[in-house]
Specification:
222 residues, alpha+beta, 8-stranded mixed beta sheet, 4-stranded mixed beta sheet, 5 helices, globular, UPF0319, signal, UPF0319 protein PQR79_07605
Length: 222
């Protein structure tokens, strides 16, 4: 009898776990999350917790691209984009436009064009914004930044602890922080824009292992 009870409890826990994460979001290969519902993580295929109030999800991500323009190779890394939408028990797909020139990179960074669809191919309404930070971008604490963002009356704020009555609309909102220019690094001898250098340093810092991050900080403090 005890063995049966243990089995039943284990099965119930497994079913509850599966039902809580029965939805997913697929990002393009050139996009990675930096936050999922307030937790720092880097993913392209995201398991969504649909037990949150109204099934609301908050995904913060960056879009990376490489392209050739006017004979030079360029690397692009977007600002951190916040996407909030209501999820149900199904899979979702995020689509992003192609970046093929410096002008298209600048347009995307200024006003990101996103397309979110469900597994039937239907458009899904969402709210988007940017997670901006003034000054040096190296070693950003995204969890702390998003916590401050969510505690304020921002367009894509999210809270797992309470219901939100803000209507979900597919609009682009401008953050209250200063707008950072499109991050495009050109592989030539021209002096790079220091804002671009700062953002790319932050990108590679986040990619580095804890040991490499510590070594890098030690070099800066020398």
């Amino acid at each position: 009898m005890r063995l049966f009870i243990r089995f039943a409890l284990s099965l119930s826990a497994l079913i509850l776990c599966q039902s809580s994460f029965a939805a997913s979001l697929q990002l393009p290969n050139n996009a990675n999350t930096v936050l999922v519902n307030g937790v720092a993580t880097e993913q392209q295929h995201v398991a969504l917790d649909i037990t949150t109030p109204q099934g609301l999800q908050q995904i913060a991500f960056r879009y990376h691209a490489r392209f050739r323009d006017q004979g030079s190779q360029h690397s692009f890394s977007s600002d951190v984009i916040i996407l909030r939408f209501a999820a149900s028990d199904q899979d979702y797909q995020l689509a992003l436009p192609s970046i093929r020139s410096q002008s298209s990179a600048a347009r995307f960074n200024d006003s990101p064009a996103l397309t979110l669809t469900d597994q039937a191919g239907n458009a899904v309404e969402f709210t988007q914004d940017k997670l901006m930070k003034k000054g040096l971008q190296l070693g950003r604490d995204f969890e702390q930044e998003i916590a401050k963002y969510n505690n304020a009356a921002n367009p894509a704020s999210w809270s797992a602890a309470k219901e939100t009555t803000t209507p979900i609309t597919s609009t682009v909102s401008t953050s209250t922080a200063a707008t950072v220019p499109a991050t495009v690094i050109t592989d030539n001898t021209e002096q790079p824009n220091q804002a671009e250098v700062s953002t790319m340093l932050d990108y590679w810092y986040q990619k580095a292992s804890p040991q490499t991050q510590a070594e890098f900080k030690a070099r800066i403090n020398q």
